[in-house]
Amino acid sequence: MLWINDNLALADWELSESFTRAQGPGGQNVNKVSTAVELRFEAERSPHLTTAVKARLKRIAGRKWTLDGAIVIRAEETRSQTRNRELARERLAEMIRAALVAPKRRIATKPTKGSQRRRLAAKSIRGEVKSLRGKVGEDD
């Protein structure tokens, strides 16, 4: 079980982990030990998430969202397999927590009369300044 918050936990069947060799420096250890973790979460088939949460999660996940509706997270930062597992699970939990928060609806507002008057006054002053930049007539 992966606990997201007090009310939501993901079942073990929704998560699958595979381990591969990590890339980058690490000496002889990198050639022998499979420390990189690839965590796969079947988000589309999850009964614990609503359709709105799944839609937000798909937008948040971006390229990590596969065509069959799963999220794939790869962690290979540390040399420890257990620490990489924790990092991958924490990243997934953060992603789901962000998707659980519904965005506030924007309420359209009208500009006040005073702000409209100030804007028009500033425009007329600016227009006057620009008109005075023109060529000087012969009568001056």
Question: If you had to describe this structure to a student in words, what would you say it looks like?
Answer:
The protein is α+β, with helices and mostly antiparallel strands. The chain has four helices and five strands, in the order E-E-E-H-E-H-E-H-H. The strands form two sheets. It has a three-stranded antiparallel sheet, with helices on one face. The longest helix is centred in the middle third of the chain and has 20 residues, at 81-100. The protein is elongated, with a radius of gyration of 28 Å. The termini are far apart.
Query: Stretches where pLDDT falls below 50 for ≥5 residues?
Result: none
The N- and C-terminal alpha carbons lie at a distance of 87 Å
Q: How much is the radius of gyration in Å?
A: 28 Å
Tally of alpha and pi helices = 4
- Mean pLDDT score, rounded? 88
- Overall structural class, as computed from helix and strand content, comes to alpha+beta
Instruction: Going across the biggest sheet, name each strand in turn.
Output: 3-4-5
Shape: elongated
Strand residues, percent: 15-25%
Helix content: 25-40%
Q: What is the string of helix and strand elements?
A: EEEHEHEHH
- Major sheet, described briefly? 3 strands, antiparallel
Q: How many strands? A: 5
Relevant terms:
two-stranded antiparallel ribbon; alpha+beta; 39% helix; elongated; three-stranded antiparallel β-sheet
